[in-house]
Amino acid sequence: MDVQQMDDFITAPEEVGYALLESCKAPSSLCEYGGKVQPVGKYEIQDFQNSPPQDPFELTSSSPNSRASDSSLPVEYLEEHAEHQETTNQSEDEMNYFLPPLEQPWTEYLDKSVNAPYRYVASLPGKDFRGKILAACNVWLQIDKHSLATIERVVTMLHNASLLIDDIQDGSTLRRGSPAAHEVYGVAATINSGNYVYFEAQSQLLSLPQSLKLITIFNEELVNLHRGQGMDIYWRDTFSVPTEAEYLHMISNKTGGLFRLAIRLMMAVSESDLDLLEFTNVLGLLFQIQDDYKNLTSDNMEAAKGFCEDLTEGKFSYPIIHAIHSGRDVHSEILKILRLRTDKDYLKRHVVSLMANITGSLAYTEHAIRALHAYAIKLLGTIQPDNPLMRDILDTLV
């Protein structure tokens, strides 16, 4: 390159830039092979230096100043450019055909397909215990109808979603007297549906005032719930027997977490300054220990989940923990049967008989239920106004 060519190169950067851009696209381009830039080859820089600067993407034959009508452009270049433009248009058409719009709406059909396991478990008749708790607490907190309905929807979604995951983790085959969701839809789809609904539930809170505070509460209690569930699984899978105190701490997270989440959300949007957390914690303990007792003794529980399902799962429930720590000689016998995770009814009835007649664990559990109920009634008396609806709920737990 002589001095004049160098001057042209410097004073016409747009022209050179255009040449480089187009030659990188064309077959004879400046391309990178193995990390080395190959020379253009058949075009010289002087082929482009006389063309006036203009937008490189506005090539029209109708314009007298366009590159297509510029006699200084080589015929070979124009032919290659036209061929390249045709290929580009064809590629864009193909992309538009194969790639759906990114803004494609999430339809009800898609949601039903992905979320069928949740819809299934939500359709099974339940006692709506948590909904009744919220209605009773609103006697005190007096939140508006929209907030109450939203929080109730969030709690219901979380509860049913957690059942999907729990039944997989526990190996349960029945839920509310019907096949568990994963037995119908498979494990993978059921896990995905449960996790999906966790986030759907959280998004419901965005419609309420102080949504950031509400989401913080949501996250805190969901963490507590998973901590409690994790400890329950760890003890079962490692066959580590917890103490009674450790078990109570675990269920205050696993079961109490959802109760606390509901009441804390209500307290956050209420204008009342009532603190219902202690009452809520007692309620969670009472509910879970009564559930443990009924799992071993209730005909209704047998119909809904199977006979003594906790024994089949090898789970350390409140009465089972007491039986193992009772110091009686039969504790090793109970442990051996528990380790079997048996579905044989005669073995499970034998364990229940030992807990009723030898270790006194069923009576001990009954005493714990009455004590927690009495304490809940005492706390109820300190909260104004009087709440007969909550009193009726407590009486169903004893």
Automatic annotation (TrEMBL):
CDD domains: Trans_IPPS_HT
GO molecular function annotations of the record: metal ion binding; prenyltransferase activity
Positions of the UniProt region annotated as Disordered: 46-73
Chain segments annotated as coiled-coil in the UniProt record: none
An example Gene Ontology biological process: alcohol biosynthetic process
InterPro entries for this protein: Isoprenoid_synthase_dom_sf, Polyprenyl_synt, Polyprenyl_synt_CS
One Pfam family of this chain: polyprenyl_synt
Keyword Transferase: yes
UniProt cross-references to SUPFAM superfamilies, sorted A to Z: Terpenoid synthases
Extent of Low complexity compositional bias: 61-72
Origin: domain of life: Eukaryota
PROSITE patterns, A to Z: POLYPRENYL_SYNTHASE_1 (PS00723), POLYPRENYL_SYNTHASE_2 (PS00444)
Keywords: Magnesium, Metal-binding, Transferase
UniProt similarity note: Belongs to the FPP/GGPP synthase family.
Protein name: Isoprenoid synthase domain-containing protein
Organism annotation: Aspergillus candidus
